[in-house]
């Protein structure tokens, strides 16, 4: 997202802020955990790189263990900008909702369409990242677990909770940018 400040002068704090915002930022936030039946639901999974200037490529795999089951089943894979649903229960119901038009993934989120009560359970998101340095490559991986509860209707507390999370995210970004500006 590009933010334009028409009143900015060359070297003003606002133009520095514009520069920082244009470079982008990555903030890892927890996924929501309560989905509403028949609606859509974003399973959030973000894995930020520590050094943005390092080129990288990543793949993301999703696994699901339904409530009452003991094992995870592979449900989705995303590699080389192509997503593949690997479990019949999710065919035509899963969409990629992560980083777009890049193999350097930091957002590995997926979106469940037409949520059912059978979607209640634990999801596992696995990032496999290859960092490409000048003379070598370095592999890292991250695993995140998200337990989802599917409900019949949304509660007011749920709506307020989502709003609060968004506000906290804005505050975190604002504080980070303020600290960078003061350096």
Automatic annotation (TrEMBL):
<feature type="domain" description="Ig-like">
    <location>
        <begin position="13"/>
        <end position="125"/>
    </location>
</feature>
<keyword id="KW-0739">Sodium transport</keyword>
<dbReference type="Pfam" id="PF07686">
    <property type="entry name" value="V-set"/>
</dbReference>
<dbReference type="InterPro" id="IPR007110">
    <property type="entry name" value="Ig-like_dom"/>
</dbReference>
<dbReference type="InterPro" id="IPR036179">
    <property type="entry name" value="Ig-like_dom_sf"/>
</dbReference>
<comment type="similarity">
    <text>Belongs to the sodium channel auxiliary subunit SCN3B (TC 8.A.17) family.</text>
</comment>
<keyword id="KW-0732">Signal</keyword>
<keyword id="KW-0813">Transport</keyword>
<keyword id="KW-0812">Transmembrane</keyword>
<dbReference type="GO" id="GO:0086091">
    <property type="term" value="P:regulation of heart rate by cardiac conduction"/>
</dbReference>
<protein>
    <recommendedName>
        <fullName>Sodium channel regulatory subunit beta-3</fullName>
    </recommendedName>
</protein>
<dbReference type="GO" id="GO:0019871">
    <property type="term" value="F:sodium channel inhibitor activity"/>
</dbReference>
<keyword id="KW-0325">Glycoprotein</keyword>
<comment type="subunit">
    <text>A voltage-gated sodium (Nav) channel consists of an ion-conducting pore-forming alpha subunit functional on its own that is regulated by one or more beta subunits. Forms homodimers and homotrimers. SCN3B is non-covalently associated with alpha subunits and induces the formation of alpha subunit oligomers, including trimers. Interacts with SCN5A/Nav1.5; regulatory subunit of SCN5A/Nav1.5. Interacts with SCN7A/Nav2.1; probable regulatory subunit of SCN7A/Nav2.1. Interacts with SCN10A; regulatory subunit of SCN10A/Nav1.8.</text>
</comment>
<dbReference type="InterPro" id="IPR013783">
    <property type="entry name" value="Ig-like_fold"/>
</dbReference>
<keyword id="KW-0393">Immunoglobulin domain</keyword>
<dbReference type="GO" id="GO:0001518">
    <property type="term" value="C:voltage-gated sodium channel complex"/>
</dbReference>
<keyword id="KW-1133">Transmembrane helix</keyword>
<dbReference type="InterPro" id="IPR027098">
    <property type="entry name" value="Na_channel_b1/b3"/>
</dbReference>
<keyword id="KW-0472">Membrane</keyword>
<keyword id="KW-0915">Sodium</keyword>
<dbReference type="InterPro" id="IPR013106">
    <property type="entry name" value="Ig_V-set"/>
</dbReference>
<keyword id="KW-1015">Disulfide bond</keyword>
<keyword id="KW-1003">Cell membrane</keyword>
<dbReference type="GO" id="GO:0044325">
    <property type="term" value="F:transmembrane transporter binding"/>
</dbReference>
<keyword id="KW-0406">Ion transport</keyword>
<keyword id="KW-0407">Ion channel</keyword>
<keyword id="KW-0851">Voltage-gated channel</keyword>
<keyword id="KW-0894">Sodium channel</keyword>
<dbReference type="GO" id="GO:0005272">
    <property type="term" value="F:sodium channel activity"/>
</dbReference>
<dbReference type="GO" id="GO:0086002">
    <property type="term" value="P:cardiac muscle cell action potential involved in contraction"/>
</dbReference>
């Amino acid at each position: 997202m590009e933010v334009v400040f028409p009143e900015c002068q060359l070297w003003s704090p606002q133009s520095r802020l514009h520069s920082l915002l244009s470079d982008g930022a990555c903030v890892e936030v927890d996924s929501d955990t309560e989905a509403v039946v028949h609606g859509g639901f974003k399973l959030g999974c973000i894995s930020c790189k520590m050094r943005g200037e390092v080129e990288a490529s990543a793949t993301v795999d999703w696994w699901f263990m339904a409530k009452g089951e003991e094992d995870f089943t592979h449900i989705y894979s995303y590699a080389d900008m192509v997503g593949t649903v690997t479990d019949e229960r999710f065919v035509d119901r899963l969409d990629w909702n992560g980083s777009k038009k890049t193999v350097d993934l930091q957002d590995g989120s997926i979106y469940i369409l037409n949520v059912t009560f059978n979607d209640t359970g634990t999801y596992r998101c696995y990032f496999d990242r290859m960092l490409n340095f000048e003379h070598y490559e370095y592999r890292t991986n991250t695993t995140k677990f998200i337990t989802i509860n599917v409900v019949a209707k949304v509660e007011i507390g749920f709506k307020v909770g989502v709003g609060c999370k968004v506000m906290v995210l804005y505050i975190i970004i604002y504080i980070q940018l303020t600290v960078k500006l003061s350096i």
